């Protein structure tokens, strides 16, 4: 199987090849059981497309508007050294001699499957038997996911941190069809070179062709295609001649993969502390929003299990200055802004929240974006700000319960729970409100957001009051908080 030639992409209409996906008029839908595999495919496919088409911004715009013909794909493919995309070779750098090899069940490459001792790996899919065997097509997306999205710490001392940093958030441009989504996340070579100032000296070969050397992996020495598939492990997937039903895509296969072996690379990327200290520099991974601080660049990660992505949506789209750091949208969002808008776009935000492979700690959120990302940014900011302001008001109102001499942990628990409930409810509301982002004026969108979010914060506050109505000191404090909440809201309930 060759990833640039053969069908390995699982869709609702069966397995298709990259060429079929990019050149057909059919609208394919990816078919993978786990949203994290889906997300990894949405990163892997545009990266492969970048290797085949090597487009500039103008080409990409043309592909998005007019599509790509089979002949065009074939012509581009002639220039690619496709041997590196063979199934037994792609992203698998051979193990060095005489090192200790770590191995594990294939299940470990899917988050949320409990096969370690981590208390956090709970969830819907928490059954090892659900993913104890996969087909050889799916090892590539699992391998890619390991290198790009899974935190090295999940594997303890044998885990490595890749070029993007561990467990960083991904933002991708989502279009009405899978084909358009892949084009929209393909890298325009001219734009990328302009932003990164990559020079001739940057190494172009893939890491499984020529693994990086030395203790520090300097960003400026890593060429675009090398970086898009940068490795952090030597890896091997032993293939058994045995039938299976794949636990990742559901396909029937006459070959099975149940384990993988790995040895981590010993050098450090600029995404790690070692790398930053060694002045490795940040390699501009296209799907990672970053925080630029005085001492270096950090990938944006989700904070904790209760975190919801809407709170940082403005910074993923527009960028934002927060204390001593500048949050910058991922390269792919900035690249997309330079293209001529044609129709609706959404932003997909995904990743792992918790340190452990927890399914409850996953993000996979879709937000409707204005047709022109560059013109209407204030619309998004206004909606998000409304949410953050309301959260602050609720927080201030709840602070009244700290003054009554109760145990601090007890009262902060009450507050924390109420705030979490708000953040969680606001997620859906903001997603719904942004559905109208092209149809409504910024002022109206904001008014809508304020109205609905205020209703939520008032409802949550009333719930807390009801719960503690017989605890007089608490209740009195909450009454004070309530009048403060009412005063600060432009909307009054009832
Ligand atoms: Zn499969």
UniProtKB/TrEMBL annotation:
- Write down what this protein is called: Putative CRISPR-associated protein
Q: Which InterPro entries match?
A: CRISPR-assoc_prot_Cse1
Lineage of the native species?
Bacteria, Pseudomonadati, Pseudomonadota, Gammaproteobacteria, Vibrionales
């Amino acid at each position: 199987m060759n990833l640039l030639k053969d069908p390995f992409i699982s869709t609702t209409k069966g397995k298709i090849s990259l060429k079929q996906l990019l050149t057909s008029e059919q609208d394919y839908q990816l078919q993978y059981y786990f949203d994290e595999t889906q997300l990894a495919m949405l990163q892997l496919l545009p990266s492969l497309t970048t290797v085949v088409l090597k487009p500039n911004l103008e080409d990409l715009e043309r592909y998005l508007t007019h599509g790509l013909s089979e002949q065009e794909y074939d012509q581009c493919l002639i220039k690619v050294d496709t041997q590196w995309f063979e199934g037994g070779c792609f992203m698998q750098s051979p193990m060095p001699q005489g090192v200790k090899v770590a191995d594990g069940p294939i299940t470990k490459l899917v988050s949320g499957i409990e096969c370690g001792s981590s208390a956090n790996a709970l969830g819907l899919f928490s059954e090892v038997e659900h993913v104890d065997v996969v087909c050889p097509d799916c090892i590539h997306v699992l391998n890619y996911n390991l290198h790009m999205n899974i935190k090295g710490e999940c594997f303890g001392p044998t885990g490595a941190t890749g070029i993007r940093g561990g467990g960083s958030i991904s933002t991708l441009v989502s279009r009405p069809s899978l084909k358009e989504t892949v084009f929209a996340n393909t890298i325009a070579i001219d734009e990328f070179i302009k932003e990164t100032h990559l020079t001739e000296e940057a190494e172009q070969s893939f890491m499984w062709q020529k693994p990086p050397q030395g203790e520090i992996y300097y960003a400026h020495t890593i060429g675009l295609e090398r970086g898009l598939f940068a490795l952090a492990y030597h890896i091997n997937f032993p293939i058994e001649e045995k039938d299976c039903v794949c636990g990742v895509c559901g396909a029937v296969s006459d070959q099975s993969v149940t384990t993988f072996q790995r040895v981590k690379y010993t050098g450090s990327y600029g995404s790690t502390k070692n790398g930053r200290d060694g002045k490795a520099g940040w390699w501009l991974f296209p799907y990672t929003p970053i925080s630029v601080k005085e001492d270096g660049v950090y990938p944006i990660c989700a904070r904790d299990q209760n975190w919801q992505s809407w709170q940082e949506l403005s910074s993923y789209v527009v960028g934002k200055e927060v204390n001593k750091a500048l949050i910058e949208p991922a390269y792919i969002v900035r690249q997309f802004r330079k293209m001529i808008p044609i129709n609706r776009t959404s932003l997909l935000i995904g990743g792992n929240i918790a340190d452990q492979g927890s399914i409850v700690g996953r993000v996979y959120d879709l937000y409707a974006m204005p047709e022109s990302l560059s013109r209407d940014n204030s619309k998004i900011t206004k909606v998000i700000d409304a949410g953050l302001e309301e959260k602050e008001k609720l927080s201030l109102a709840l602070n009244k319960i700290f003054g009554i001499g109760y145990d601090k942990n007890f009262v902060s628990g009450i507050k924390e729970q109420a705030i979490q409930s708000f953040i969680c409810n606001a997620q859906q509301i903001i997603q719904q409100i942004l559905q109208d982002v092209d149809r409504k004026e910024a002022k109206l969108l904001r008014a809508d957001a304020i109205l609905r979010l205020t209703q939520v914060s008032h409802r949550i506050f009333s719930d807390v009051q009801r719960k503690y109505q017989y605890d007089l000191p608490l209740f009195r404090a909450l009454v004070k908080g309530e009048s403060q909440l009412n005063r600060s809201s432009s909307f009054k309930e009832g």
